[in-house]
Amino acid sequence: MPRPLRLFEPDGVYFITGRCLQTRLLLRPSKAVNDIVGGVLARAIDEFDVDVFAFVFVSNHFHLLVRSQSCEIPAFMQYLRSNIAKKVGALVDWRGKFWDRRYDAEPVLDDDALVGRLRYILAHGVKEGLVARPEDWPGLTSIHELSAGEARAFAWPGGGDIDGHATTKRVLRVVPLPCWAGDDEDVRRVRVLALMRDIEAAACEERGGRPVLGARNVAAQDPHSKPASPKRSRRPQCHASTQAARDEYRAKYTAFADAYVEASAAYRSGRLDVEFPAFAHRPPWVPPHRLAA
């Protein structure tokens, strides 16, 4: 089955998910893992024109909420995933492939859906019964920046910066959601705290008195292990609060994909001046006689 085409638009906000190989706990939280991931993420944000609105790294996957006016999300993600795989892989003594597949990236189409995706990110660790409160999750999350306004700085992992010079700490920059950008910082923090308390109360009711695993036990898990019954859900095409918005995006994406397939066929046949749809990346060009072989 062919992989779905990417459509990254400059004004679009995207909900991104990356999963570890075989759902193994290779990102199991620890101070060392948090420092590595924080350093790589902070450097990636500095290197690429990408706004990060929220993030969470759990034991076997991560989520980001991002936007790039320059459509640099693919380069940003390649940088982030390759460096995390190399540096965290070495830390947990894991050789070979680190990620299960290419990352998922779904557009978030309206403000209600955007706040919903933020809530989903904040709920990680709590909704699985691992910790009682969002802020108890021992892995790297954007809760510090979003709820307390605390900017953290991380060094490039490995005892020296990427260019070989002395290590320089980089601030891990998180920006407000587009729908909240015009609001006072205190107002935004109160909204985030309200979401967190709602998440906590809903999870407590659902557990019905059962205890959580606890941050200490989460950190004690073997990073090479994997859940006995990992959850798998079908990747949505987009996130929206109305069916009309989903239908509109589906029609736009279908037109984009059809135009890309047509242009790609012409390009591979030798028409190097063919026009691709906006925001599409040209495929690698192979001479037609090599394709026939």
Task: Give the topology, please.
Blueprint: E1 13-19, H1 31-47, E2 51-57, E3 61-67, H2 73-91, E4 104-108, H3 111-122, H4 143-148, E5 153-155, E6 169-171, H5 185-207, H6 215-219, H7 243-268, H8 288-292
Antiparallel strand pairs: 1-3, 1-4, 2-3, 5-6
SSE-based structural type: alpha+beta
Rg, rounded, reads: 21 Å
Question: What is the fold-level CATH name, i.e. the topology of the largest domain?
Answer: Alpha-Beta Plaits
Q: Largest beta sheet: what is the strand line-up?
A: 2-3-1-4
Number of discrete helical segments:
8
- What's the helix-strand series? EHEEHEHHEEHHHH
Mean pLDDT: 92
- Tally of domains: 2
What are the low-pLDDT stretches, counting only 5+ consecutive residues below 50?
none
Which second-level CATH architecture of the largest domain applies?
A: 2-Layer Sandwich
Amino- and carboxy-terminal Cα gap: 23 Å
Helical content stands at: 25-40%
Biggest pleated sheet: 4 strands, antiparallel
Count the E strands.
6
**Global morphology:** globular
CATH C-level class of the largest domain is Alpha Beta
